[in-house]
Amino acid sequence: MPDLPLFDPPRLNDGLPALPPRLAERVTPLNDRPVAADGRYVLYWMRTAVRGHDNPALDAALALARALGLPAFVYHALDERYPYASDRHHTFILEGARDVAAELAARGIGYAFHLSRPGHRGPHLKTLAGAAACTVTEDMPTAPMRRWAEALAGAAPGPVLALDTACTLPMRLVGRAHDRAFAFRKATKEARALRLEEGWSDVAPPGPAFLPDLPFAPMDLASADIPALVAECEIDHGVGPVPHTPGGSRAGYARWADFRDTRLARYARRRNDALDRTAVSRMSAYLHYGQVSPFRLAREAMAKGGDGAEKVLDEMLVWRELAHVFCRFTPDPDSLDAIPDWARESLARAEFDRRDALASWETLARARTGEPLWDAAQLSLLRQGELHNNLRMTWGKEILAWTPDAATALDRLVDLNHRYALDGRDPNSYGGLLWCLGAFDRPFDPPKPVFGRVRARSAAVHARRLDPEAFRASVAAPAIVEAAGRAPPIAVIGAGIAGLAAARTLADHGYAVRVHDKGRGPGGRLSTRRGQDGTAFDHGAQYFTADDPRFARFVESWVDDGVAARWEAPVARLAAGRAEPAPPRRRFVGTPGMSAVIRHLAGDLDVAFGRRIGSVEAAPDGGWRLVAAADEGDGDEPAEQAEIVLVCTPAPQAGPLLAPAPELARAAGAASMAPCWAVMAWFGDAVALPGDPPPQAAFVEDSPLAWIARDSAKPGRPAGECWVLHATPAWSAEHLEETPEEIVPALLDAFADAVGGSLPPAVGARGHRWRHARVIGPAPGPDALFDPALGLGAAGDWCRGPRIEDAWLSGVALAGRVLGAIAGTAPVTERAHLSPRAVKPVDL
Length: 844
Ligand code: FAD
What we know:
Elements: H1 21-24, E1 27-29, E2 41-46, H2 56-68, E3 72-78, H3 87-107, E4 110-115, H4 124-130, E5 132-138, H5 145-155, E6 160-163, H6 171-174, H7 181-198, H8 226-232, H9 249-262, H10 267-270, H11 284-288, H12 294-304, H13 307-328, H14 341-349, H15 361-365, H16 372-384, H17 389-398, H18 406-420, H19 427-436, H20 459-462, H21 468-475, H22 479-484, E7 490-493, H23 497-508, E8 513-516, E9 529-530, E10 536-537, H24 549-560, E11 564-566, E12 571-575, E13 578-581, E14 588-590, H25 595-602, E15 606-608, E16 613-618, E17 624-628, E18 640-642, E19 644-647, H26 651-657, H27 662-670, E20 672-683, E21 697-700, E22 705-710, E23 722-727, H28 729-734, H29 740-754, E24 762-777, E25 785-787, E26 792-794, H30 804-823
Parallel strand pairs: 2-3, 2-5, 3-4, 5-6, 7-8, 7-19, 8-15, 12-21, 19-26
Antiparallel strand pairs: 1-6, 9-10, 11-14, 12-13, 16-17, 17-18, 20-23, 20-24, 21-22, 22-23, 25-26
Helix pairs in contact: 3-8, 8-30, 12-13, 13-19, 16-17, 16-21, 17-19, 18-19, 23-25, 23-30, 26-27
């Protein structure tokens, strides 16, 4: 007797025709509504089986449509709100959509794709499902896919059916999570073998290709400029595409065919050698997005036979499906509740054993822990979007040592894996990540420090059988090198926060980047001016906000690393000597000064200070020459060359540097920036501001001053009575060409008026003129400018808005444009392997 029911179809919603058994057994109805009587079509909401063949959800939609006498059509959409949405995942998904669009068109099946982005958002799924007799989608057990399908089921007027498109043996038939692979293997063997023998036949469409009236203009993916589209989306542009692994069925099958025919036979012997990237199939991203059929891969591996095929099949069928079933029947695989009780209890007891050296998210994400093999493993995720499975286990376990408790370790594991790995967010990810914390495993006694009874595995021990240097060398090059053989050198002009965000993102992807700045040291407009007398002033930017989660993630890390801190001082609005609290705001400052953030960012970059670039000129042999300004040095300095030049200076200084790209120069000219006179004053006695509690800073109204702040009250500053005063843009513009000697007394008088009386005598005061201080009108258009044909780009607050976080986001967006454009230069993948379907489509 088999351990599982060989066939157990669900009860379908009223009005739905019976489906053939091989489809029926894969169905989970997500609501109990009858077929919508006035429904005009059957909708297949495609998400995780992005292929036009071997696709049970597509087949069910086609079969139901035929039986109901209705047309069927496929709606496929890409939202910006899925967790860890980035250029990397978006590009892969869009490339996959391009292939499935072509495949479905060839099969005569209607398909429409929608990409959410500014100006192109709306409740389109709800609208389309609202007019459908019935909706079909995939049964994907991980968040947010499961949640989104359930939400649709609550809103749609007709049935919503989820079909298992990922497992050879449908998850629902297994019925419960298994915690050990050998038991799962045994329990499912016979039922799975039956299905593998049966093969798969695609269902023929019920009629000619059909599209309803769409609430959006469908996208022609064949001609779409994918990097440009990705740049428009509000997603994480700091994680770039992986050009050696383009998305889509064609690239997926090409890779599979190569592996199947040349390396499958030696897989059993070679698979654990992390130095040989060709030893493994590297199919997991294609499987994750359903761009290749797991059924077809399994059939073809079986047909090959041998011990390599046997091992691949065990991983593809047993381990992969074990993880799917586990996620399907585990309420929250993202929480520690998903690991066995013994592991959870033991890890909690081991918490006091952890290392003192906790690592911030940024330290981990940027592979900077100092543990050579772990850093090399993380580098592989960051740069190549993948990590050899054997090393991934060590990578996962080692994180326990840098986090305060197991729950944080799991959060970090999920974050780093899902963010960087192309196959992240898969049920299989949870299989691997939870294994690192004891799932699918047994306890090991006696308990060990950090790991407790969970199987211990450290990078240092792993390094005895895998040379960290050799592994690092094998993954360190930018991903374009594997795809196209070389990576272009890049120059950035301007080491403010925008330039450094761009440079660091590119350097983190492995590119050679050199930054040039005219200043004597790091700062830009986040400068800290220190006096010989021990005074220190943030005379430019005062504090930063972190409203955008893409920036907030880094700010949290900077706080953990001690280069920034929350500034919680009371801030007021001051008018005519009266104070009222300013609206509450989360504010952060660099510690011990604003420039600490810039120093931190510049820390591991190649930055040339004291180098003012006068012009960017076409080099005779291609690329660009960065010519130093005439007033710099003795003029003998040779001009530096780069293939890509990114101008990250304030807009008025960017214009002339962008002269070879007139459109970009025009955009810089369209931004407007206001000046600011700043005064740094220090007093022997306390300056009293009105208010209770007395504010430490204030926005001033009806005054030449816009802002005053007791700088020495910010976290980490030397004690004292140091004040920074900023004049309004209008006053600064009116007095722009005056001298500090004229400005300082005028603004000190305004300060006395603002605080409603007299000031203690100033011990000293200095003035500083910021000619281009604040953006008052950003250049219309995208967050960053880039001309891929010229290899010239620009970023800065003036591309986005007046704040530090705008400058950061603009710099990262520019890096994203560059990474996308470089990925677009990779040679097109061999397209010949999307072979004809094994079995002709059948009419049901
Ligand atoms: P910058 O910081 O200006 O960096 C540009 C860099 O380019 C500079 O380092 C410069 O030396 C270099 N450079 C320029 N020309 C050349 C050249 N030809 N060759 C080589 N290098 C060159 N924002 C907030 O969020 N909160 C605040 O409280 C706040 N207050 C502010 C107060 C003042 C007085 C000022 C001036 C700004 C304030 N801002 C504030 C704005 C904030 O500082 C900016 O938005 C942000 O720092 C801009 O960063 P960036 O990298 O675009 O430009």
